[in-house]
Write a structure and sequence with these properties.
The chain has eight helices and twelve strands. The protein is of the alpha+beta class. The protein folds into two domains: 218 residues, Transferase(Phosphotransferase), domain 1 (Orthogonal Bundle), CATH 1.10.510; 81 residues, Phosphorylase Kinase, domain 1 (2-Layer Sandwich), CATH 3.30.200.20. The strands form four sheets. Strands 1-2-3-4-6-5 form a six-stranded antiparallel β-sheet, covered by helices on one side. The chain has a two-stranded antiparallel ribbon with strand order 7-10. Strand 1 and strand 2 form a beta hairpin. The longest helix is centred in the N-terminal third of the chain and has 27 residues. The radius of gyration is 20 Å and the shape is globular. The two termini are 31 Å apart.
């Protein structure tokens, strides 16, 4: 069932109990509806499309899907645009480039099927070596020029994405702005679960201190202990880096580390607070409490409760209109 963030009852559950919730819930519900409409309009007006594609000989994938244009190649896969034969619906198809990694695509399809949610890309089919999803031909976050209020409304949705994944025992491990796209209706959706960790499975795709994901968005504990140790709090750190990147157009602070033979930049200093004083010059004060919570160095102190994050979003919207709660 889709989350109705415009519901007065839903908003009221995210606010401190008492008179404040009763007064503000109707106003915030209307405000959230308006913000969603505004975001949808910006998405509709944005002319972003998939990168230029190359026509290929039509190739069948699974029952009822055909690839006809190549979008790109990555280190592990070829990505195609295609169609569903029965409906003509546009789809995206990822095919493994390495036979020894084919099982990862079936695994990703299985995880996506388990995670059916309006804010997560829909998986239409999968098999050994490929996965077929809906085609999201709309803007990246940084191309929409969102207002602060619109971005807060999206953070509310991001919290719901994390809640749903973690309730289903899945840690994303590669949450970043490039993996958040929009449907033509203006709904933000998380794509790409190729690096995800299934907490219910004894088998992981990495062992020991191997690190997967995007180094600039990886939490300190993952850099130190390896991706096999990534927990739910690690995703909230990645969300903090993503939010900071959207607000400023840059990654927080960088230091070089070595991942195997590859030099990579990670987003935190070796010591001291991650959320530093000079942020006040780059990040609107409205977002300081949220970012300070998300970017705590130690997982136990990190903001990693979706209810708390959503309450902070609503409190920030209230501060935009009146005095703090």
């Amino acid at each position: 069932m889709a989350l109705d963030i415009t519901s007065i009852g839903r908003i009221e559950t995210c606010l401190p109990k008492g008179r404040t919730a009763a007064i503000w819930a109707p106003r915030l519900a209307e405000r959230m509806r308006n913000l969603r409409d505004s975001i949808a309009l910006k998405v509709k007006q944005n002319q972003w499309k998939l990168p230029p594609t190359k026509t290929i000989a039509e190739e069948a994938f699974g029952p009822g899907f055909r690839a006809n244009r190549k979008i790109t190649d990555t280190l592990t896969s070829s990505v195609f645009k295609g169609r569903e034969v029965a409906t003509g619906r546009s789809v995206v198809i990822k095919e493994s480039l390495r036979s020894q990694l084919s099982y990862l695509f079936r695994r990703e399809g299985e995880l996506l099927q388990r995670l059916k949610h309006p804010n997560i890309v829909e998986c239409l089919a999968y098999g050994e070596g490929f996965v077929v999803t809906e085609c999201l031909e709309r803007a990246f976050l940084d191309e929409l020029h969102l207002s602060y209020d619109e971005l807060l409304a999206l953070v509310f949705d991001f919290a719901e994405i994390l809640r749903h994944c973690h309730q289903n025992h899945i840690v994303i491990r590669d949450l970043k702005d490039e993996h958040l796209l929009f449907s033509k209706e203006g709904i933000v959706k998380l794509i790409d679960f190729g690096s995800a960790r299934d907490l219910r499975s004894a088998r992981d795709i990495v062992d020991g201190q191997i690190i997967i994901g995007t180094p600039s968005h990886i939490a300190p504990e993952v850099i130190e202990d390896g991706s096999a140790k990534a927990g739910t709090a690690s995703d909230y750190y990645s969300l903090g880096v993503t939010l900071y990147s959207i607000l400023t157009g840059e990654i927080i602070q960088k230091r070089k580390i070595w991942i195997g033979e590859i030099a990579a930049q990670v987003s935190y200093p070796m010591e001291g607070p991650i959320f530093t004083a000079d942020w006040s010059l780059k990040v609107p004060e409205l977002f300081h409490p949220i970012l300070k919570g998300l970017l705590q160095r130690k997982p136990a102190r990190r903001l990693s409760d979706p209810d708390r994050l959503q309450m902070m979003v609503l409190q920030a919207l209230i501060r935009r209109e009146a005095s703090p709660l």
